[in-house]
Specification:
Largest sheet: 4 strands, antiparallel
Number of domains: 2
Strand content: 15-25%
CATH topology of the largest domain: Adenine-n6-DNA-methyltransferase TaqI, Chain A, domain 2
Radius of gyration: 23 Å
Distance between the termini: 10 Å
Strand order of the largest sheet: 2-11-8-9
CATH architecture of the largest domain: Alpha-Beta Complex
Number of strands: 23
């Protein structure tokens, strides 16, 4: 299999948005989840963000430029009128190039590691057009490209099936929550409203200090991006110096809730000793509950529903960075149902989580299979 410069297979498209009437849909980098669009924002020409400035056509491939970000998508026919962020690179395949072959290559660890090494920038590192042009790609003939793409598509189907199964288990738990407790924003079941100080405590983590990223007490710590809804993303933990006093102040116990102060504010998960000797940064609230009154399972699903139903909108701002400060969190009045009902919910959640864990293990196997096939494909071992 020959190797060619990547711009022999694709063109970088720079079709900027011209003045338009009415409303168009805008896709930001944050609203693309790996390869799937989570949501689109309606924008007018005068009201659109400055980054909403690229047109796309059917079969174009969009690639997130940012370092450490695997976000790639082929534009479908019903998406070709959307506007995409300048945080994406828009690529159009040349003649005799199969766009699904390129799509899978751009998702591969092989490409992503090359891309990350070429990223630059003072704050958010990203790949520019000149650096992208330096990348070389293994390229078989068109029939072999199509055969490889078909094999990878089939392997990806299994991976996507397991992802969808996990999503369904999450939806089942949220449906169960609504059935048992109703909407916590409207508190339609009339549960008593209590402030956090009445059933628990919270504190923010340690302020990130660039001078303390080296030292004798380097320990992994959680950032905002490591905390997802109901789970933790732990494959990119950073380290910071934590002395003995810090270890007491910023330690984590089984059952603690970690909540994002900024970004997607309120996003939270239950710490279950996923990794040893781990701490947390100032961008995160550590919440400890008195389990005689409130259980972690109820608390995190309550906050998900509050977030989904607009109950955190008062803490968001279009003009400045949004924060759910410690003071604001402590003053929130939250519906607290009887502990017996919370226990019933937690027991049912545990049964669902057992099934979900099996699906997650299957997903891990299908991910390994898929990445293995990607590596073989682009080393010329799959043709």
């Amino acid at each position: 299999m020959k190797t060619v410069k990547i711009l022999e297979t694709v063109k970088i498209i720079n079709d900027t948005v011209k003045k338009f009437d009415g409303i168009r849909c805008f896709l930001s980098t944050g609203d693309l989840d790996l390869t799937e669009i989570k949501s689109l924002e309606d924008v007018t020409y005068l009201g659109k963000p400055s980054r909403a400035n690229q047109n796309v056509k059917k079969d174009d491939i969009i690639l997130a430029r940012m370092q450490g970000t695997v976000k790639v998508k082929i534009i479908d026919s019903d998406e070709e009128n959307i506007i995409v962020s300048t945080g994406f690179m828009v690529l159009r395949c040349n003649k005799d190039i199969d766009n699904r072959f390129i799509f899978h290559y751009l998702k591969s660890n092989l490409f992503q590691s090359k891309k990350d090494k070429l990223c630059s920038g003072a704050t958010q590192k990203a790949i520019n057009n000149n650096k992208f042009a330096e990348i070389q790609i293994p390229l078989p003939n068109l029939p072999t490209q199509q055969k490889i793409a078909a094999i990878l598509d089939k392997a990806d189907e299994l991976r996507q099936y397991n992802k969808q199964l996990i999503t369904k288990y999450d939806a089942l738990t949220q449906s169960l929550f609504l059935e048992m407790f109703g909407d916590p924003v409207r508190n339609e079941k009339g549960f008593p409203l209590k402030q956090l100080k009445e059933f628990g405590s919270s504190r923010l983590g340690k302020m990130l200090d660039g001078k303390k990223i080296i030292g004798n007490n380097l320990k992994p710590y959680l950032r905002n991006s490591n905390v997802q809804w109901f789970r933790f993303q732990l494959d990119d933990l950073l380290q910071m110096d934590f002395d003995e006093k810090d270890k007491i102040e910023f330690s984590l116990l089984f059952g603690d809730i970690l909540m994002c102060e900024g970004g997607e504010i309120g996003r939270c998960a239950i710490w279950k000793d996923e990794t040893a000797d781990c701490y947390f940064q100032k961008a995160i609230h550590r919440i400890r509950l008195n389990d005689k009154y409130v259980l972690p399972e109820y608390f995190v699903y309550m906050f998900k529903k509050i977030s989904d139903n607009g109950g955190l909108n008062e803490f968001k701002s279009a003009a400045t960075i949004s924060h759910l400060t410690g003071e604001k969190l402590k003053k929130m009045r939250l519906p607290i149902p009887p502990i017996k009902l919370q226990n019933q919910f937690a027991e049912r959640v545990q049964m669902i989580e057992t099934q979900k864990q099996q699906a997650q293990e299957a997903l891990a196997k299908s991910e390994n299979l898929f990445q293995g096939l990607l590596q073989r494909a682009f080393k010329g071992e799959l043709n």
